[in-house]
Amino acid sequence: MAGKPKLYYFDGRGKMESVRWLLAAAGVEFEEELLETREQYEKLLQDGALMFQQVPMVEIDGMKLVQTRAILNYIAATHNLCGRDLKERALIDMYVEGTTDLMQLILMFPFLSAEDKEKQHALIVQKATNRYFPAYEKVLRDHGQDYLVGNQFSWADIHLFEAILMVEEKKCDVLSEFPQLQMFKARISNMPRIKKFLEPGSQRKPIPDDKYVETVRRVLQMYYNVKASV
């Protein structure tokens, strides 16, 4: 029997958080090696564990997988969360790409200057309410089903749920004009595995703080300023 997947990343959300969410949704327990020093990162490089010299990296089923999308695709396929045929898979991929674009705006937020954070905050809310959430609202309204694709829980649903929570941390009433998404959020949050991951003490990471930012910068030797997206 294969051991638990092992996640190599920082003690924070970043690109690994979607992996944590997907594993939790699939009911898969996992372990983590939290990177705190440059030496830990360099050892992974020296051991040849990071194909493209970057994290996230997940040890799973005898593989050392890098590239977030590849990791997520593998987990989703392994646990039947990527649709029942090619058409459903294409729709799921399309919806995931949309939520990924929105989430990327939030992932870089902690690394911005105070001035750029103000601009980015406005951009996040604007993109969520004018571009992304209206699209998902329409999908749910038009087909009248509980989930985004095929009336079956998929990777697209957990990814959208994660994105909703992230945007709500920036604007708590962001779903006020989206009744379908409000019901969708309530539905997903009450699924037993999701409910458990939302509880205190789970492996879900908190909102990134200054300590997380400093650790990432030190380990990856990020000495440049990240710019806000436009």
List keywords for this structure.
230 residues; 9 helices; 4 strands; 4-stranded mixed β-sheet; alpha+beta
For the CA atoms, what is the radius of gyration? 18 Å
- Tally of strands: 4
SS strand fraction? 5-15%
Strand order in the largest sheet: 2-1-3-4
* Poorly predicted runs of 5 or more residues: none
Give the termini distance in whole angstroms.
47 Å
Order of helices and strands: EHEHEEHHHHHHH
Summing up helix and strand content along with how strands pair, one would put the structural category as alpha+beta
> Helicity range of the residues?
40-55%
The largest β sheet comes out as: 4 strands, mixed
- Overall pLDDT metric: 94
How would you describe what is shown here?
By secondary structure, the chain is an alpha+beta fold. 54% of the residues lie in helices and 7% in strands. It has helices at residues 17-26, 38-46, 68-78, 86-107, 114-143, 155-168, 179-189, 192-198, 210-220; strands at 6-9, 31-34, 57-60, 63-66. It has a 4-stranded mixed beta sheet with strand order 2-1-3-4, with helices on one face. It is globular and about 50 Å long. The protein starts with 5 loop residues before the first strand and ends in a 10-residue tail after the last helix.
Topology:
Layout: E1 6-9, H1 17-26, E2 31-34, H2 38-46, E3 57-60, E4 63-66, H3 68-78, H4 86-107, H5 114-143, H6 155-168, H7 179-189, H8 192-198, H9 210-220
Parallel strand pairs: 1-2
Antiparallel strand pairs: 1-3, 3-4
Q: Quick summary of this structure?
A:
The protein is an alpha+beta fold and 230 residues long. The chain has 9 helices and 4 strands.
